[in-house]
Input
Amino acid sequence: MQNPYKITEQEDGFVFETDFGLSYKITFLKHNAFDDLGFSSYEFGFYPVGDSKRFKDQRIEDTIIFALDDFFQKNPDCIILYVCDSLDNRARERNVLFNRWYKKYASDAFVKLNRKIFDTENDMIYYFAVVFNQNFIQPLIIESFIEAEETIYNK
Output
């Protein structure tokens, strides 16, 4: 990670502005997926604010990784969930991007649990959870993660 943009913390995450004048929001929204195990989970997301063009900008990636790291440092026992949005038919691209970031930045301290399923319209849904490797309930998280998937998508 080289030089993240200056971020401003908000109640549900962070915002930042790029050198190109684009604003981005990074969110961490409370989720109840693992409440029954006594662990907090948050759905992670990031997106441009307003109508903006995409620019190749390494600092955007650095800023998002910085925000994730900061969030985990402040919430070491939490579970981060990420669903690759498919509204614009770019879910697979988002999945590839996040997997690349994970391989590039994650240390042995983290474990990523990958899942993919078909929704009712037969579109592929990519999602995953990220937890600290030393999280002692990791086997329960994996089991609960798979059960939640089956409950939601195999009705």
Remarks:
- Residues 58-74 form the longest helix (17 residues).
- The beta strands are 7-10, 13-17, 23-31, 41-48, 79-83, 110-118, 124-132.
- The mean pLDDT is 80.
- The domain at 7-153 is CATH 3.40.630 (Aminopeptidase).
